[in-house]
Amino acid sequence: GTRPPGPGGRGARRVAMVMGASPDPTTVLRGHRRSVKCLAFCRVEGDADEPQHLLSGDLDGKLRVWDLHRRRGTLEARVFPHDSGFVSIDVCENGEVLLAQGREGCVKRFDLGRLCSSTSEATGSGEPLSTFSTGCYNFCRFSASADGATAALPGSDASVVEVWEPRRAERLLSLRPPERGCGGKVGMCTALCLGDGGRSLFVGYESGHLALFDLRSPKDPLFTESLSGGEPLMSVDVDAGGKGGVAASVGASISQFKLSGSSLTVSRALEMTRPGVSEVRIRRDGRIFVAACWDGRVRVYDYKKGKQLASLRYHRTNCNAVALGEDGVVASACDNIALWPPLYSTSQKRVK
After folding, report:
1. Are 209 and 186 in contact (CB under 8 A)?
2. Half-sphere CA count of 344, side-chain side, radius 13 A
3. Is the pLDDT score of 19 beyond 50?
4. Is the pLDDT of residue 249 over 90?
5. Which residues contact 65 (CB under 8 A, 6 or more apart)?
6. Angle at 94 between CA 133 and CA 303, to 5 degrees
């Protein structure tokens, strides 16, 4: 593929994917020895206005920091043990803090600047600012508020969601699974998304139900809706305005929904040719959302119209994670990490 200047395409022309062909990645980042499970763009000291670094965590418990301008790794740090790799990461508190979730239910909070300025594995991970654990061993990604004040993840009983304050490593709430409006047991928690500045929490379950909890009055959910025909939900994201969102499952469809007060309406079901989505993310401007799919593709959709704009092909096995940069760059991960051209146009033709 091409190698435009800047982080995966900064200053490059905006790419319109037409003529039925997937563009090549602008850059492929290699260095992880095991599967990459999570991604996050970030700024570090010396970056311009746009993030020029990428964080990635793998199944072996190692974190890598990538300089996207130079297209190389600047740090490899062991954050979790070999047998307890990464589940998810998030950058919060104005980009100053990294939250890292491991498979044993442990969440570690790091000073991101100090971590990125380290130069060796021995000192790279440093000491976390705080650590807490719920003892949950499932695959559900945690969700953290932008200000870092709250984080939600499953408890040792995987049907129960725990809400923590990461700074003090203090558990604030435990949310029991809904009993009404779901026709029986919902199973374990499989997807989480904090909304409304951390005041509300969307919880997806093994049964395919999505519940919304108001964390100020969390005894019972505001609603519980079935979204995926009984297929376990894998990922949920809500738009910046809190007016709607998307939910994806192990099945072959992605649900778009609208929110109005304490009610949810499914606006459309987007069918895919092959089942399974690892992660969905809505871009902050609300123009597109992307899905990391089990067939290795990254599917790009017009968020308002629900039309598929592109199917990005590079990964040969499950695409595990996606991240959206503020400059329009998309990152996706399997064994390696692919950086895709900036995706700005909403008039792109559909790519099959």
Report:
1. yes
2. 11
3. no
4. yes
5. 44, 53, 54, 55, 73, 74, 75, 77, 115, 116
6. 90
Q: How far apart are CA 160 and CA 155, in angstroms?
A: 6
pTM of the predicted model, to two decimals?
0.89
Choose between 18 and 225: higher pLDDT. Answer: 225
- Residue type at 255? S
Whether residue 8 is predicted with pLDDT greater than 50 in this model: the reply is no
CA distances from 110 to 102, 130, 173, 305, 340 (A): 14, 7, 23, 39, 28
Determine the distance from the C-alpha atom of residue 21 to the mean position of all C-alpha atoms in its chain, rounded to a whole number.
Answer: 26
Mean pLDDT, residues 214-229: 92
As a whole number of angstroms, the distance between CA 314 and CA 172 comes to 42
Residue 134's pLDDT band (boundaries 50, 70, 90)? very high
**Secondary structure of the chain in HEC code, one letter for each residue:** CCCCCCCCCCCCCCCCCCCCCCCCCCEEECCCCCCEEEEEEECCCCCCCCCCEEEEEECCCEEEEEECCCCEEEEEEECCCCCCCEEEEEEECCCCEEEEEECCCEEEEEEHHHHHCCCCHHHHCCCCCEEEECCCCCCCCCEECCCCCCEEEECCCCCCEEEEECCCCEEEEEECCCCCCCCCCCCCEEEEEEEHHHCEEEEEECCCEEEEEECCCCCCCCEEEECCCCCCEEEEEECCCCCEEEEEECCCEEEEEEEECCEEEEEEEEECCCCCEEEEEECCCCCEEEEEECCCEEEEEECCCCCEEEEEECCCCCCCEEEECCCCCEEEECCCEEEECCCCCCCCCCCC
282-310 mean pLDDT: 95
